[in-house]
Amino acid sequence: MKIGIVGCGLIGQKRAKALRLNHQLVAVADVVEQRAQQLASGYPGCVYFSDWRQVVDHPEVELVIVATTNNMLTPVALAVVKANKHLLLEKPGARNATELAELVEAAEESQSKVKVGFNHRFHPAFLKAREIWETGEPGELMFIRGRYGHGGRLGYEKEWRADPEIAGGGELLDQGVHLIDLSRWYAGEFDSVEGHVATYFWQMPVEDSGFMLLKSTDGAASNKGQPRVAWLHVSCTEWKNLFSFEIFGRYGKLQIDGLGGSYGVERLTYYRMLPEMGPPETTTWEYPGEDKSWILEFNYFVECIEQNRNPEGNLHDALASLKVVEKLYKLSSVDGATLPQSTSQPKD
Ligand SMILES: NC(=O)c1ccc[n+]([C@@H]2O[C@H](COP(=O)([O-])OP(=O)(O)OC[C@H]3O[C@@H](n4cnc5c(N)ncnc54)[C@H](O)[C@@H]3O)[C@@H](O)[C@H]2O)c1
Q1: Is the minimum distance from the CB of 9 to ligand 1 under 6 angstroms?
Q2: Contact predicate 142/226, CB 8 Å
Q3: Alpha carbon of 66 to ligand 1 centroid (Å)
Q4: pLDDT digits over 54-77, tens only?
Q5: pLDDT at res. 343
Q6: Same domain, yes or no: 151 and 96
Q7: What is the DSSP letter of 333?
Q8: Residue 334 above 90 pLDDT?
């Protein structure tokens, strides 16, 4: 396919790399033109612009990847679907659910296929876990426990992620939507949302930590009358980068640790309870090396386009995750922009 990229920062570059030889990057844009130029220089024939509209309107571009700061995700995406081009939109898709709802409506009226960048579903450990889960062997879902965090970096409180106007929220919106999305993938819709967000460390007007207790009570009868629960924690005061996601079935647990790089080697462990109970049968798979989730997600999206079907990890999934985020902001009496200031000093 002929691809355009808007937003040539960290993720725009990762997305470009994931196209490999199968697709052609024909146009890129970034408000920082030098970034666009630099990215284009690695792809023969690729043109670059500082105005994103030039990528969306480029006659050859069939699919646009939008990887801007959060404030521009929806405005650019709206233009893409109105031009009936396919869209890979980075998570969280928008700054809030209201903003995204407008895009959902516009996308439904267009011919575009739309996927949101929930690449975590495509990490090999998650794909293997899903394969095991679907055999039915681990049994009915009981609950999920997920933790995701990093420790920020010097000046983190001055980056766009700390600015509510640009980001729309803090850590809950940033890494939180991945944990919510992964949990929904197993537990379905959450009709009960409890929790708390707070700013413990960073001198910024958005949260640096989010705690969630999410419950799915529909179909509860299939699980001895108990709701399916996700118990999640995200933080950018996690001084050692951490990713951990545990899925508890009645007869076994699937545990995913690490995402590669600073999060440690990606690993899936399957603990299968034996009829006599006691220590479970334990099998571990490790996935060292390059993070393939970007390639796998993109290939899946192209396959959906070719087969004219809507991808999973779409705008509806993003909207559901943003609604959970919004409920938590309300519960904590913040709107993502009015969090109490931390009293602690940032790292120096
Ligand atoms: N899928 C994931 O796991 C994942 C991981 C990190 C970030 N993200 C998402 O990707 C997006 C980008 O994050 P990042 O880490 O690459 O940030 P970044 O700051 O490295 O890059 C964002 C780029 O967008 C550009 N930009 C801003 N406004 C623009 C406009 N109007 N037109 C063109 N370019 C514009 C900026 O100049 C910058 O180069 C965010 O929405 C973020 O939530 C997703």
Answers
A1: yes
A2: yes
A3: 8
A4: 999 999 999 999 999 999 999 999
A5: 37
A6: no
A7: T
A8: no
Inter-axis angle of helices 124-134 and 176-187, to 10 degrees?
20
Domain range holding 20? 2-112
Residue range 186-198, pLDDT digits in tens: 999 999 999 999 9
Question: Pocket of ligand 1, candidates 5, 11, 116, 123: which has the most ligand atoms within 8 Å of its Cβ, to mutate?
Answer: 11
- 342 pLDDT higher than 60: no
Ligand 1 pocket, mutate which of 13, 15, 30 (most atoms under 8 A from CB): 30
pLDDT of residue 345: 40
- Identify the pLDDT of residue 222: 62
Q: Is 244 helix (H, G, I), strand (E, B) or coil?
A: strand
Indicate which CATH number applies to the domain containing 67. Answer: 3.40.50.720
Please say whether the beta carbons of 7 and 67 come within 8 A.
yes
Whole-angstrom Cα distance, residue 99 to residue 206? 18
Burial degree of 22 (CB within 10 A; 0-12, 13-18, 19+)? exposed
The answer on pLDDT for 45 being more than 80 is: yes
Separation of alpha carbons 162 and 168, rounded Å: 9
Q: 190 and 259, same structural domain?
A: yes
Instruction: Give me the number of domains the chain comprises.
Output: 2
Cα 249 to Cα 272: distance, rounded to the nearest angstrom: 9
Average pLDDT score over the chain: 94
